[in-house]
Amino acid sequence: MEKDNREVLLDVKRLEVTFNNSRKNKGFRAVKNANFQIYKGETFGLVGESGSGKTTIGRSIMRLNPISDGEIWFEGKRIDGKISKEEKKNVVRNIQMIFQDPAASLNERATIDYCVSEGLYNFHLYENEEDRERKVDEALESVGLLPEHKSRYPHEFSGGQRQRVGIARAMIMEPKFIIADEPISALDVSIRAQVLNLMNKFKEERGLTYMFIAHDLSVVRYFADRIAVIHNGRIVEVAPTEVLFKYPLHPYTLSLLQAVPMPDPQIEKAKELVVYDESKRDLSGEKPILQEIRPGHQVFANDREMKEYEEKLSQMEKEAEKE
Predict the structure, then answer these.
(1) DSSP class of residue 108?
(2) In the chain, which residues have pLDDT < 50?
(3) C-alpha to C-alpha distance for 222 and 231, rounded to whole angstroms
(4) Domains and CATH numbers, the chain
(5) What is the Rg, in whole angstroms, of the alpha carbon atoms belonging to the chain?
(6) How many other β-carbons are positioned within 10 Å of the β-carbon of residue 172?
(7) What are the residues whose beta carbons fall under 8 Å from the beta carbon of 56, sequence distance 6 or more?
């Protein structure tokens, strides 16, 4: 599948994920009608507050969460629901996940050698024991760890080192697409840039595609090519990174941007607090949908709101020209 001469690697259509409560016989919709595409070779940021459905979408793509409606397409093939054993193998091999908590995602009873080798064992991606050891050594060295670390256990490492092991475990599979679920939120500030730079290095060297899940817009600005903003399981705005920061339209996007702390105490003090309250929106008339306001820039709105956003965008562009 191609769009704008770019190859679409992942296509999510009308995705809904519902968690059922068997006791109350009620379902909770964690993701509502999510639509987005991720192009080959790009980093796509998915941003929202805790509980907004970011991780649920990532886990659904990985087939860890069953979906209640919609479709997920990878390399032109549908990968949700019932698929053949061979296709399932292809999904696991080519889509890898870097988890948020590096301590919880590694088996504490297994050596680093086994943790990194697990995918190699499962798919038998090595010729002999010597080849497997060479691949593990190269994977560890590529993330800044030493081959002699193989015999150690996860608890012997710092949080940053454990996350590097998690990255090595994903990279050794030579995947095409990586879902990074808040990979730096559990790390010290001093280590965060190192991990992001490491991920960027792999993207350039191997032509990787990332879906980068985060709640911190300042981090995503550094790392992502395009950003989708999600609120209460619904995607409310999608735009190229610099466009989103220059021309934010949806009130929830504005509230997220306003929450980014400023280094200047005077500017931070003078900042106007923007709190998004969905219940105060006038949604009478047509139901809002995610629609394009400019090429590549989509916003969740009905026709009346769309006119307001168009006027607002036009005003912002005029002000930008004066500067």
Answers:
(1) T
(2) 1-2
(3) 21
(4) 2-322 (3.40.50.300)
(5) 21
(6) 23
(7) 17, 30, 31, 65, 233
